[in-house]
């Protein structure tokens, strides 16, 4: 049970984030849905409350657009003003293989939303998380990190753009962020861990082109082999709630077990360099 715990879930109106919110509400947590569309989030919140059943916690909706650093700052100002504590921050929201676009602040969309938006969000809420210790940060990554690397000369994909590579890079950035943040949080009572949820049936793939004639077959395959959002959310819930991971720092999990990562996701030098550049990109004066 998570009674008395306040948990922020980004992108909680659909997919894994929504399934995570349902289960946490069921466990009587106070869940803050941090979402880009107030309207879609309010609608999802009604359904989540119905699904969570009796004896549920409290559900709130707050506006957060990770493609806007101004929105991230406004959201955090509001949280810090209104919330005496944050027990868990779940960095779940993501955008997947979208056509080339830039965020409000001029960053390539996938890197901007999946990495930089969450980077600033976590930074701004860190003092509150420290005051709430023991507290946790959960970062949703993806096994697709394996197919990318961090090209410091073209983080904005201005020289070339491959949407699959850009997604993989943003997810590799999530893992490197977890590694460096874990190092910085030693001894604070705040832990951070990442997870890879596997292939899940969500609307994350809405930008992926599937030829019309193949769609029925793809639909059939996805129902047969892809995980449900509920299944995909299990490791997020585990990292948010389980006493088994108390004090575990800077690791990655899959199916509620620690996962061995490729060396490029555990490179401390690259993690530190990415951290320093990310600070400059989001305007943090370290």
Automatic annotation (TrEMBL):
GO terms for molecular function: oxidoreductase activity. It comes from the Eukaryota. Keywords: Oxidoreductase. Signal peptide: none annotated. InterPro entries: NAD(P)-bd_dom_sf, SDR_fam. Pfam families: adh_short. PANTHER family: PHOSPHATIDYLINOSITOL-GLYCAN BIOSYNTHESIS CLASS F PROTEIN-RELATED (PTHR43157), RETINOL DEHYDROGENASE 14 (PTHR43157:SF72). Belongs to the short-chain dehydrogenases/reductases (SDR) family. This is Retinol dehydrogenase 14a.
């Amino acid at each position: 049970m998570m009674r008395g715990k306040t948990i922020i879930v980004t992108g909680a109106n659909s997919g894994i984030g929504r399934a995570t919110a349902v289960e946490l509400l069921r466990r009587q947590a106070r869940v803050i849905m941090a979402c880009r569309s107030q309207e879609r989030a309010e609608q999802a919140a009604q359904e989540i409350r119905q699904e969570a059943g009796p004896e549920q916690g409290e559900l709130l909706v707050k506006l957060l657009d990770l493609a806007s650093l101004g929105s991230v700052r406004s959201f955090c100002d509001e949280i810090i003003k209104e919330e005496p504590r944050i027990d868990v921050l779940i960095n779940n929201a993501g955008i997947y293989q979208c056509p080339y676009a830039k965020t409000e602040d001029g960053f390539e969309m996938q890197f901007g939303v999946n990495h930089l938006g969450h980077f600033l969000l976590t930074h701004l809420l860190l003092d509150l998380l420290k005051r709430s210790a023991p507290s946790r940060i959960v970062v949703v990554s993806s096994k697709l990190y394996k197919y990318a690397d961090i090209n410091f000369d073209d983080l904005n994909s201005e020289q070339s753009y491959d949407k699959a590579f850009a997604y993989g890079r943003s997810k590799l950035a999530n893992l490197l962020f977890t590694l460096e943040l874990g190092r910085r949080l030693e001894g604070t009572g705040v832990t951070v861990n990442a997870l890879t949820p596997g292939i899940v049936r969500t609307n994350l793939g809405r930008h992926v082109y599937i030829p019309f004639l193949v769609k029925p077959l793809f639909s059939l395959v996805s129902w047969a082999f892809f995980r449900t959002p509920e299944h995909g959310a299990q490791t997020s819930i585990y990292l948010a709630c389980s006493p088994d991971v108390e004090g575990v720092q800077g690791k990655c999990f899959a199916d509620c077990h620690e996962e061995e990562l490729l060396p490029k996701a555990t490179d401390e030098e690259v993690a530190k360099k990415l951290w320093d550049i990310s600070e400059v990109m989001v305007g943090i004066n370290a």
